[in-house]
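User: Here's a structure from my thesis project, written as structure tokens. My advisor, Dr. K., wants to see whether a designed sequence matches the one we expressed. Can you design one independently, without my sequence as a hint?
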């Protein structure tokens, strides 16, 4: 049996996720920015919260931690490398460790770059990746506390996962990411098609998350420093992947479109 996953849009553009493991009834909430909408959704479904899964310390990911713990007695799981900045943390996880939500196991990846301690949860059986602010649909997190080399190494870990993996990222940034992506890899036909689909979905108010890792591999410029067309656009034909990634990130930081 695979996880039952519920997407809760909160604040301006955050996504919080509930994940229920059906065999045990265990329920996790991923990166609860706030507590009220989470408690309301739990109540509507008659689910009991057992765990909070935090990817990193930013307030729009841990803001609901203490209120949810107080209301439900749940356990809080987060990055070992940043345990001191995760409110109420009970279980600290590091790269390569396995952790179970009820009966389903997650593999933990350390994915620093956006923050110095950031983890991703990969539930292989459910083909679900909770990656916080590391990988977005057509984008990646800003480098607040890490270097381009670190972030590229983090994204490279995620690139090894299967194409059918669903990417449950924490923000609806896809349309503005797409606007940028087409400027750096204009010759990518799959990207142009995806951009059109994203615009249509957003015009109808539909979410563009989760996406499939396979489509990210084919269209997300932050996963494609090897692309000849991207390299040409950036004028970095002979540079190494880290340099191409770094320049892509730098251009996105100042992109106005
Ligand atoms: Zn963040
Ligand atoms: Fe965030």
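Assistant: Designed independently from the structure alone:
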């Amino acid at each position: 049996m695979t996880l039952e996953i519920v997407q809760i849009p909160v604040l301006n553009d955050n996504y919080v996720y509930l994940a229920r493991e059906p065999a045990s009834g265990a329920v996790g909430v991923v990166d609860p920015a706030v507590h009220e909408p989470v408690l309301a959704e739990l109540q509507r479904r008659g689910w009991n919260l057992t765990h909070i899964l935090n990817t990193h310390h930013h307030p729009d990911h841990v803001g609901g931690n203490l209120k949810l713990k107080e209301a439900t007695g749940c356990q809080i799981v987060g990055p070992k490398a940043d345990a001191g900045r995760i409110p109420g943390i009970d279980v600290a996880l590091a790269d390569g460790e396995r952790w179970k939500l009820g009966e389903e196991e997650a593999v933990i990846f350390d994915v620093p770059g956006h923050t110095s301690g950031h983890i991703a949860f990969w539930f292989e059986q459910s083909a679900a990746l909770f990656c916080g602010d590391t990988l977005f649909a057509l984008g990646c997190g800003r480098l607040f506390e890490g270097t381009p080399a670190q972030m590229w190494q983090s994204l490279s870990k995620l690139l090894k996962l299967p194409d059918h993996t669903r990417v449950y990222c924490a923000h609806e940034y896809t349309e503005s990411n797409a606007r940028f992506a087409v400027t750096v890899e204009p010759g990518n036909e799959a990207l142009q098609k995806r951009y059109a689909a994203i615009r249509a979905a957003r015009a109808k108010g539909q979410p563009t998350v989760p996406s499939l890792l396979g489509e990210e591999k084919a269209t997300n410029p932050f996963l494609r420093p090897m692309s000849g067309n991207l390299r040409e656009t950036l004028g970095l034909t002979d540079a190494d992947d880290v340099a191409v990634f770094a320049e892509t990130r730098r251009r996105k930081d100042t992109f106005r479109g």
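When you compare it with your expressed construct, this may help: The CA atoms of residues 225 and 241 lie 5 Å apart.
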